[in-house]
Design brief:
Belongs to the thymidine/pyrimidine-nucleoside phosphorylase family. The protein is of the alpha+beta class. Helix content is 44%, strand content 16%. The chain has 16 helices and 14 strands. It is globular and about 65 Å long.
Length: 439
């Protein structure tokens, strides 16, 4: 291990065997934290080349269980988002893609951060559960084309150990380490192809647009070298996605989107991501054909029908589709008003997310209990004109003191200016094996 640290410290590339040795040794507990910390710092400063990054991803992927989806018919396409505020995409998108006949077999986790993960959000539906046998999971996908399960088994345990160490050694912010962390889990999850939603902006992990493109390129290259068709879209997270931020509020918005009543930006993102999923599943020949097919699932109500069957198959109350008031609701709603007139120039997504966390919508630690009913619903977005006193957002709360703490944060989330500003771009570019295209 000393030789490996020294080699990387001097800027040389590590071999596949050296990377496997360090990952296996660290996962098994044979290599101590202090040596891996030294190697991570050497990687941080000297970087990794593309081959090293693929070897690292492969070693982390093989450090634990590999999910076998071969009993599911058809090409399995997974979607992964690098995370943001109000990102309820998987909930609506899964039903849209499944309604096109493409199997969606998704493993999701619980969230640490401003809101819960996909599973936490779906559990706002009474009775919904991800507790299924493998046979039930496979049968659900084969019959209704959609199932969302919890991350069972031990997927990429090396990543869990490495991430915890990176967090306390200030080595998180490295493209190779980020890309291998994300892709090792996705590749272990068994999909044939992967569509990546790489967020950029104030509410994203990658704040800078160029850094977001670099991360997308690195992940697409890893996927393609590991024989998985992979495409990445670089999408906006400088303001929350859609309007709802908070678990039951986001499920309600996803259901409204399936009915054709969703926010424009959220609906458009689902249509674009879905089109690329259909393309990789060889269901359509062009992206435009894919967009039309996804839009048809909304217009014709087929995505909503799939979502109803999906909820019922996983123990949830399907009546929520037709009466979203059955979702958990907060005791109070505070109307946040504009203090001046003008155009909204900024809505700091990270501040909105932190406000939702303060209200109780997310977890600060793994032990935290989520309040599924609280959150924030935006009434205005960037580019909208507001008069003094207009409602900017609705704050759903159960605890008066938490509401006051959230409002102190929200005061700094908005920037209103007299000068007109354009609506923000939703999709900044696409990265595929053919190359990078900025829009």
């Amino acid at each position: 291990m000393v030789d490996i640290i020294s080699k990387k410290k001097e800027g040389s590339a590590l071999s596949r065997e050296e990377i496997i040795y360090f990952i296996e040794g660290y996962t098994n507990g044979n290599i101590p934290d202090y040596q891996v910390s030294a190697l991570l710092m050497a990687i941080f400063f000297q970087k990794m080349n593309k081959e090293e990054t693929v070897y690292l991803t492969e070693a982390m992927m093989n450090s634990g269980d590999l999910i076998d989806l071969s009993d599911i018919e058809g090409i399995k396409v997974d979607k992964h988002s690098t995370g943001g505020v109000g990102d309820k995409t998987s909930i609506a998108l899964g039903a849209m893609v499944a309604a096109c006949g493409v199997p969606v077999a998704k493993m999701s986790g619980r969230g640490l951060g401003h809101t819960g993960g996909t599973i936490d959000k779906l559990e706002a539906i009474s009775g919904f559960t991800v507790d299924m046998t493998k046979e039930q999971f496979v049968n659900n996908v084969n019959e209704i084309k959609l199932a969302i399960g919890g991350q069972t088994g031990d997927l990429a345990p090396a990543d869990k150990k490495l991430y915890a160490l990176r967090d306390v050694t200030a080595t998180v912010d490295n493209i190779s380490l980020i890309a291998s962390s994300i892709m090792s889990k996705k590749l272990a999850s068994g999909a044939n192809a992967i569509v990546l939603d790489v967020k950029t902006g104030s509410g994203a992990f990658m704040k800078d647009l160029d850094d977001s493109f670099d991360l997308a390129q690195e992940m697409v290259q890893i996927g393609c070298q590991m024989n998985r068709e992979t495409v990445a879209l670089i999408t906006d997270m400088d303001q929350p996605l859609g309007c709802a931020v908070g678990n039951s509020l986001e499920v309600k918005e996803a259901i409204e989107t399936l009915k054709g009543n969703g926010p424009k930006d959220f609906t458009n993102l689902c249509i674009h991501l879905g089109a690329y999923m259909l393309l990789l599943a060889e269901r359509v020949a062009t992206v435009e054909d894919g967009k039309k097919m996804i839009q048809d699932t909304i217009d014709q109500g087929t995505a909503l029908m799939v979502f109803e069957k999906f909820i019922q198959a996983q123990g949830g109350d399907p009546k929520v589709i037709y009466n979203t008031d059955l979702l958990s609701k907060s005791k109070g709603i505070y109307r946040l008003q504009a203090l001046e007139q003008g155009y909204i120039h900024k809505i700091q997504a990270d501040i909105i997310g932190m406000s939702a966390l303060v209200l109780g919508a997310g977890r600060e630690t793994k032990e935290s209990v989520i309040d599924l009913s609280v959150g924030i619903v935006l009434n205005k977005k960037i580019g909208d004109f507001v008069e003094k006193g207009d409602i900017l957002a609705y704050v759903h709360y159960n605890d008066e003191s938490k509401k006051e703490d959230a409002l102190q944060l929200l005061e700094n989330a908005y920037e209103i200016n007299e000068i007109k500003v354009q609506q923000r771009q939703l999709i900044f570019g696409i990265v595929s094996k053919e190359g990078m295209k900025r829009l």
